[in-house]
Amino acid sequence: MKVLWLSWKDRTHPEAGGAEVVKDELCKRLIADGHQVTQLVGGYPGAEGEVNHDGIRVIRVGGFYTVYFLAPFYYFRHLRNWADIIIEEVNTAPFGTPYLYPKKQSTKRFLFIHQLTREIWFYEKIPFPFTYFFYYLEPVLLWLQRTMQVITISESTKNDLKQYGFQDINIHIISEGLKDVTPISSLDAIQKYDRPTLLSFSAMRPMKRTLDIIKAFEIAKQSIPDLQLLIAGDDSGAYVTECKTYIASSPHKNDITVLGRVSQKKKFELMQKSHLHASCAIREGWGLTITEANSQGTPAVAYDTPGLRDSIRSGVTGVLTRESTPASLADAMVSILKDPEQYATLRRRAWEWSHDITFDQSYTDFKKALTI
User: Fold this and answer.
1) Bridge-partner residues for 86, per DSSP?
2) Which tens digits make up the pLDDT trace of 203-214?
3) How distant, in Å, are the alpha carbons of 202, 209, 322, 359 from that of 304?
């Protein structure tokens, strides 16, 4: 089979993230099974127009935004009638394959959607009136492609899509996967920090609501005086300045450490030695850092939001809060850390579940969705 994958970025893009990891892991397995794969993506300064990665042909046209306008012209001139399967990955903006990409009669077309953007626009501080423009544009664009087959990674995204006219029968959920992550061999093999430690591992961005974690930590300190907070992830931008200014004025500033970007080795050390991982994102496709922390023997506490509610089985592998507030997050943290028996049970079940979240399973689900 010949597979064409339309996407915003490829794995070498400076802003590549989890979506690019998923795409490449699935594409590499398609190649291993004897299929041909071409990715048509946006370019970036210094990037070659065409490269080959692990047998995957990567064609770059346009840039961060212009790829959506230039890709159809490249497709029409060079790739029309080539593909047996066209996968359109939607990351905020669609490529519009039903309207701009004519195909041969036998070609199958799919959308691949990790998550919707929706209220994220309001958290990322996009200037007015663009916040409202993009907020209301997304459901319109989705509605125009509502008859297509869709592949996604969570029940949350499936439910979102159903609100905009997609039929249940046309939505296929595949497993998330862990890349370069091996679950620890035994929970007994890991020594936690001497002090109870809360970890926030994600980019410090408005939609991640890092400030909520800091405020929850301050509240929890009243019940657990020796609690400490470690924050790791991208620490650039205006929101980071806001967070650091808040920390500087906190009575508990000496118990809060902002590490910024860390190596893979340090990442797993933090996940292994911390007692709890916290996440307050407004929405995710899947809370991947939660599953990664679980694999290293650390359960999570999080807001009950799309994606996070998929990566946590509340009361089983971690805890979802009753409300999306720092006070509710603090209550959950204190409840877990002050109950050793509950903590041990959550930790074990989270670690066990992480063994099932693999790209091999993801690919098995993916092939079933494509019926190849």
Assistant:
1) 4, 109
2) 899 999 999 999
3) 17, 13, 7, 25
Structure tokens at 291: 């599953």
Tokens 């958290």: give the residue. Answer: 123
45 CB-contact burial (10 Å; exposed 0-12 / middle 13-18 / buried 19+): exposed
Handedness of CA 315, 306, 287, 213 (dihedral sign): negative
Residues 345 and 1: their CA atoms lie apart, in Å, by 46
d(CA 24, CA 43): 16
Q: Residues 281, 305: contact at Cβ < 8 Å?
A: yes
- 230-284 pLDDT, tens digit each: 999 988 888 999 999 999 999 999 999 999 999 999 999 999 999 999 999 998 9
pTM for this one? 0.89
Query: Within 10 A of 105 (CB to CB), how many other CB atoms are there?
Result: 5
Q: How far apart are CA 308 and CA 303, in angstroms?
A: 7
